[in-house]
Amino acid sequence: MSSSRTSDVLVVGGGIIGLVTAWRAAQRGLSVTVADPEPGGGAAQVAAGMLAAVTELHYGEQTLLGLNLASAARYPDFAAELTELTGHGLGYRRCGTLAVALDTDDRAHLRELHAFQRESGLESEWLSGRECRRLEPMLAPGVRGGLRVDGDHQIDPRRLAAALVAACERAGVVFHREWAERLTVTAGRATGCVLRDGTASSAGQVVLAAGSLSGRLAGVPDEALPPVRPVKGQVLRLSVPRRYAPFLSRTVRAVVRGSHVYLVPRLDGELVVGATSEELGWDTTVTAGGVYELLRDAHELVPGITELPLTETRAGLRPGSPDNAPLLGPAALEGLLLATGHFRNGVLLAPVTGDAMAQVLTTGELPDVARPFTPRRFRAAALSEQPA
Ligand code: GLY
Question: Which residues are within 8 A (CB) of 233 and not within 5 positions of it... i.e. 6 or more apart?
Answer without folding.
Answer: 46, 47, 274, 275, 276, 277, 278, 315, 316, 317, 318
